[in-house]
Every structure is written in structure tokens, then in C-alpha cells.
């Protein structure tokens, strides 16, 4: 009896694993197809000045709704693309698409910054800076309005490489943000030695500031530290006006979050700016 149920349990888990592997393969196939068939989109989330509540830029976020799988979360398909190497062509598409949009806004007189997320494998490409330079030239996007976001974890994994890449990006005139700050481990000495412009404080530090006094203290300390290193501080995932008020009180520079707006299609950004400024 016991033996029998054990075998059933094994069969259950084995089938479950098979199903997962199958699902992952299907996702990878569909993603590859989407990339080749113009099936991915970039949406843009406003980056807002805390003090004036004015939109100063946007972050480009990849979106994918597959005809068979439905909408797939970015963390899901980005992770999958990292595992297969598809992230390199996908990342290149993101850069081109975002730069084209930036060039278009810039020609139309919209002074918006555009931030792009760069994944681990992409950041380790030895020719990333050259590729970016070529895309900037081809699209006519103004480099001083382009920002590259790299996560703290990726940046700190190989500080020597990070320093080289960031120097190359700076030489092109591009700014650099450390994304998901606080979730990894940054040595302060390294933080000081890297040519970073912004710290994007991870959402997990914002989410419970109204409830947890410790979170308020940590957030204050991060803002203070960042400012003393000459960095611009950005809070991610701001969902309530109470959170925004707190950020204003402690002097955080910029925020992103649903309390202002989620990400939208590029074509909706101009109207959003008019409404937000009215
Ligand atoms: P991220 O770069 O830290 O982006 C912020 C994430 O927080 C986005 O999730 C955004 O939609 C979400 N968010 C913004 N405001 C709020 C809020 O008020 N509340 C909550 N709960 N969430 C908020 P999204 O779009 O699902 O992207 C998740 C992650 O996937 C990104 O985190 C980034 O690491 C990655 N990703 C997205 N697009 C790209 C891309 O084009 N290339 C690369 N390499 N990674 C990307
Ligand atoms: Mg980001
Ligand atoms: Mg982030
Ligand atoms: Mg994040």
C-alpha cells in the first residue's frame, strides 16, 4: 500500500516536471517567433519629479502578449530569454526601439529622458558600448537623454568589468542607473568608484513605509547616503499618496509608481504629459 502510493507520488512529480519542461520549451519557441514577427512591444512608465510632480522621463518596459499563451510577465520571458541567449537579440531590439522613440520625441520637442533595462548577459557583451553607439547614430537619438539601468546584483558581480562598461557608456554621454538597489550587496567603496548617476531604490523598501518604522529609517538612510555620494535617488513602486508624501519629506528626487501611472504605449505618452501638467 505504502509502496504503491510512493510510486504514484513519484509519477505525479515526474509528470509535473515533464509538463514544466514542455511549457518552458513552448514559451521559448513562441518568444523566438514573437521577436521575429514584431510581436513584442515597449511600454513606457513615467519617471516623476517628487517635488514638482512633473514627468521628467520614462522607463521602457518590454511587453509580450502571445496569441496562444496570452500575456506573459516580463520577469518570466526575460528570465527564459537569459537562459537561451535570446536575450541578446531581444535586448538589441529593445535598445533600437527605445532609441527610435527617443529620437521621435526629441524631434517633436519633447524633452523626455528614456531609460532602458539591460540584462546580465547583455551587460557582459564586450561590444555593448559600440552597439549602443551605432544605434544612437543610426536613430539620431540624443545620448544625453538616454539612460541605462543595470541591476545592483549584475553591476557588483564583476566590478572591474562594470567600471569599464560604465566608462564607455559615459564617454558616449549616456547616464547610468543602479536598478533594484538594496536587494543585492554593494560595497560603499565600489559604489563610490563607479560612474553611476542614479540609485533606483527597490520597491520592497517602499511597500511598507506606512506600516514599518524600520523601513522609514532605512529609506532615509539610503537617500542620505546616495545624496552624500552625489547621486540622484529614485523610488520604485510608489502606490500611495502617503508613500509619495514621505518621499517628499525625506528629499527623495524622483519616483515611479502606480500612484502616478503604470507603463503605457509610446503613442499615449504625449497625451499623458498634457493631462499630468494640466
Ligand atoms: P524593473 O526594471 O525594476 O522595472 C520595474 C517594475 O515595477 C516593472 O515591472 C513595473 O511595471 C513595475 N512597477 C512600476 N510601478 C509599480 C507599482 O507602483 N507597483 C508595483 N507593484 N509594480 C510597479 P515589469 O514591467 O513587470 O518588469 C519587471 C522586470 O522585468 C523589470 O524590473 C526588469 O528587470 C525586467 N524587464 C522589463 N523590461 C525589460 C527589458 O526590456 N529588458 C530587460 N533586460 N529587462 C526588462
Ligand atoms: Mg528598471
Ligand atoms: Mg527596478
Ligand atoms: Mg524591480
From TrEMBL:
Top-level taxon of the source organism: Bacteria
Annotated EAL domain residues: 24-277
Name this protein carries in UniProt: Diguanylate cyclase
Protein species of origin: Thioalkalivibrio versutus
Lineage start: Bacteria, Pseudomonadati, Pseudomonadota, Gammaproteobacteria, Chromatiales
Whole-protein residues included: 564 to 841 of 841
